[in-house]
Amino acid sequence: MCILIWTIGTMGAFATNRYNFYLEGVDKVIVKRGPWDALPPVSVSCMDFEGQLHFDQFVIRDGERIKDLCKLMESLKPKECKYGVDVRCKIYMYHGDELVTTACMNKYSCMIDGNCYKTTDEMVEFLNAIPDDELCPPGTYTRKLDGSIVERSFPNGRDSLTVLIDERLVPRLTKLGLETPIRFEVMCTAEQDGTPTMVKASATDMDGNRRAVSDEVTQTVVAFFKEDIRWKPNKERMCFDIIPVNITFIP
């Protein structure tokens, strides 16, 4: 179960150490602000925000404005985010070209470095009041995330996952005596540290038609992704972020 609960002690650490670090190091803030009241068909995750919503992008370089933003972040109170945050705005904080941290939020909740806080009206007002001269013209930034979800989620990318499937999963399926080609559609979720949480697997034939397979076959695939796989840690990952993997097994 993925539940984010943070105590007053956690908030205090953020309010002192993190705030001072921001003031000393951050010299650029990129704000990607979508419609706060948008109602997309599915929840928008922090990891895939750019690919799911239209947004305006702003760049803040003024030191006083960055300081004001840090003070607002300092004032946020911790809260429980049982199902993560349905994101409408994303903030990137930089020191030079180095990304220091990200914040993902809607009007009610804000996730910073994997910690969940209650968004304040003052925070939303600040973000809404960013002047137009800090707006990036269309075409000056990439809206879509680079690479597939698997490529971004597994250490060393898709190829290393393929090698692990060939070395461990394929021999187990071979022992079960499957006689015809089969495709598996696997849906995974994970904790922020990369630990798998939920794995669901379904099977189809090569034409995409649902295929009945034994529970032993399905459980072999599920067990592999639960016990052999550890995804890349990501503080932006939320409970509902799905990692899809498609496997074709040919006897």
Q: Give the CA-based shape.
A: elongated
SS summary, helix count = 7
- How much strand content do the residues show? 15-25%
Portion in helices: 25-40%
Mean pLDDT: 80
- Structural class determined from secondary elements: alpha+beta
Main beta sheet: 7 strands, antiparallel
Unreliable parts? 1-21, 139-147
| Number of extended strands | 10
Q: For the CA atoms, what is the radius of gyration?
A: 21 Å
Q: Tell me the strand order in the biggest sheet.
A: 2-1-4-5-6-7-3
Order of helices and strands: HEHEHEEEEEHHHEEHE
Key attributes of the depicted protein:
alpha+beta, three-stranded antiparallel β-sheet, seven-stranded antiparallel β-sheet, 251 residues, 7 helices, 10 strands, elongated, disordered N terminus
Walk me through the structure.
The radius of gyration is 21 Å and the shape is elongated. The chain has helices at residues 8-25, 49-52, 63-74, 121-128, 149-153, 157-175, 215-227; strands at 28-33, 56-60, 77-78, 89-95, 98-105, 109-112, 115-118, 182-190, 196-204, 243-249. The two termini are 36 Å apart. Helix 6 runs antiparallel to helix 7 (215-227). The chain is an alpha+beta fold. It has 7 helices and 10 strands. The strands form 2 sheets. The chain has a 7-stranded antiparallel sheet with strand order 2-1-4-5-6-7-3, covered by helices on one side. A 3-stranded antiparallel sheet has the order 9-8-10. Helix content is 31%, strand content 24%.
